[in-house]
Every structure is written in C-alpha cells, then in structure tokens.
Amino acid sequence: MDIKTADLYDQHGAKLQVLEPILRHYGGRRRFAGRVATLKVHEDNKLVRSILEEEGGGRVLVIDGGGSLRSALVGGNLAKLAAENGWAGIIVYGCIRDSVEIADIPVGVLALATNPVKPAKNGFGEADVPVRFGGVTFTPGAWVYADEDGVVIAAEKLD
Question: Is 122 within 8 Å of 45 (Cβ atoms)?
Fold first, then answer.
C-alpha cells in the first residue's frame, strides 16, 4: 500500500483530522489504512482479543487505553491474530509488549511506548464508541491512514 499522508493532507486538508505526533511505529507495516473500529479500555485487553478474533476485513482497530503506561494492551500473540484475521492495523493509546516480535508481523501497530507488564483480562470496556486522544476523534466507520509521517482521519474513504 502506497499511502502518503502528506499527499492526502495536500489534497484533502480541510476534510482531515491530523493526530498529534505522539505514537511510535512498532508493526511490520509502517503504511496502512482502513475503516476504523474502536475500543475504550483501561489496563484490560480481554475485549481487544475478542475484537481481533473477528474478521478484520482491512479495518484498523483504534484502542483508547487512556494513555496508561502501566501495562501493555497488545502483544505478539494479538498482533499475529490481527494479521491472520485480515486487520490492517492497530493504533494503541497506551502500551504494547513483544515489540521485536511485532516488528516482524505484517500488520501496522502504533502505540505510545512498550511495557512488559501484561494487562488484566476482565473484559471491562466499550466497543464501537467514538474515542478521543492526540487532538482527534476516531469515530467507528471513519477512515484512518498512517505512514512514516503521521496519521490522518477522514469521515469517508479517500482516493
């Protein structure tokens, strides 16, 4: 996929939200795009697994982990699951773990940082709700585009 967020911004700037540069790339794909699916969780990734077990259909899972740096929400097993089930990427407002393993998995993964601590697995959280971080709102069904220059969000698919 040859996504260039700078070109998208030049063509559609007024229609786009631009995520503040707070996340780092960890996945095997640095350029990815897809329809947004959302989760809002806090230091608990049971819902993350259940969503990634679904057919991704090229979607991007956006996880609002509240910016917590105390535990990881995605690890190598979940990144593999995402790739196997056709997810284009995972954007985490929180931490991941198994970063070396994730770097070899063909899925986009963006997160604040890494942390080896595993999360709780209680299943608390909300799916398919608008989530806000980094100066933007991710709405389920919107489109997200990510590359080495940043992340942009559009209400509809861009050409």
Answer: no
